[in-house]
Amino acid sequence: MSKKNGKNASSGNYEPRPEHKFSFGLWTLGNRGRDPFGDAVRPTFPPNDIVHVLGEIGAWGVNLHDNDLVPIDATPKERDKIVRDFRAACNESGVVVPMATVSLFFHPVFRDGAFTANDPEVRAYALQKTMRAMDLGAELGARIFVLWGGREGVETDACRPRADEAVKRLREAVNYLCQYNMAQKYGYRFALEAKPNEPRGDIYMATTGHYLGFIPTLDHPEMVGVNPEFAHETMAGLNFMHGVAQAWEAGKLFHIDLNDQYPGRYDQDLRFGSANPKSAFWLVKFLEDVAYDGPRHFDAHAYRTENCEGVTDFARGCMRTYLILKEKADRWNADREIQTILKEVSAASPSVPKNGRYSPTGAQTLLSHVFNKDAMMQKRLPYELLDQLTVDVLLGVR
Ligand code: GLT
Ligand code: MN
Ligand code: MN
């Protein structure tokens, strides 16, 4: 996709602007196309160059793992210089760092997990590494800290005395990190990211719903929310937007990872909207309808067949599709026929007893009401038509 496609002559302007809050991880543009069967196909993309490209294509933010920027064995002096130069690159490009995270999966020391590993020394190292990653993120201005426990799982359940022990270890770690956050006055909000499997055979916190159940058991639940990822929930065969909606309703949508995925496969991290544009549409419509104002982070990477230019096409494509779908959502919301149907399907006849909050008299009224099921069955539910109107909007004929 060349620059000229940033503007669409027929309908609207799909040029990303800072207020759209589009962000990319260093690891996304920096992905070199390695997979379990093949080596890198693209050269290293230095962090400072990534930031410049992001600035050029209109992205607002860049996110990073500690080791996307600072090599794991860097000396403090080396680290400080790298961070200084990176900050300068961000400032020059007008790109902010909204989120930071920690790699607790790449180094072989985490082969049995990090916070949930059996070896207490590995668990302690994981905490230390995370605290340092929090220091780094805070220095760069990040206020969201993502925790993705990719290695927090098993290939065989024989390897843990009991599976609930893993939950306890994870709780202990997150509680510890919340305390560190307060002690350092970093003001982070933690966003926990679920995934059902890969790289482990089974990962403990398999879905966003699992995390929503876990968070209220923490010492500081107000400090912790979720970072749902499109691909991960789709791998689990779930409706991503529904998980996002539940997180939102619980006040826990602290961050979001946008990409795409065909169900039943390995984690594909495809360009946003490229595999399931209809699901992507419902998601964008939800985020825009509720006025979600957090980062719209693309956690995806270019096809392995791409060269460096293709990586830019990929990144532009994620943002462009989001903006196209945002326009489609506006169109859907403004469509009179669609809105009339929506009103019609949820309208109630005046004789219906109101069943809001429970009260003894309300309950009596409800119990004594005679429902006319035959009449209720006559109500029109034209969802075929409603869905076709949606498809017409999406396919650009409406
Ligand atoms: C890794 C993973 C992503 C997570 C990143 C944050 S790292 O690329 O596949 O889903 O969001 O740790
Ligand atoms: Mn992710
Ligand atoms: Mn993924």
> How much of the sequence is in beta strands?
5-15%
Strand order of the largest sheet: 8-6-4-3-2-1-10-9
Seen as an oligomer or otherwise, the chain set is single chain
Total number of helical segments?
15
Please identify the structural class as seen in this structure: alpha/beta
How far is the N terminus from the C terminus?
Answer: 25 Å
CATH architecture of the largest domain: Alpha-Beta Barrel
Choose one word for the global shape: globular
Order of helices and strands: EHHEHHEHEEHEEHEHHEHEHHHHH
CATH topology of the largest domain: TIM Barrel
Q: Uncertain segments of ≥5 residues (pLDDT<50)?
A: 1-10
What's the rounded overall pLDDT mean? 96
CATH superfamily of the largest domain: Divalent-metal-dependent TIM barrel enzymes
Largest sheet: 8 strands, parallel
Task: Quickly name the level 1 CATH class of the largest domain.
Answer: Alpha Beta
The count of DSSP E runs of length 2 or more, i.e. the number of strands, is 10
Listed once per kind, the bound small molecules are:
5-thio-alpha-D-glucopyranose, manganese (II) ion
**Radius of gyration from CA coordinates:** 24 Å
| Helical residue percent band | 40-55%
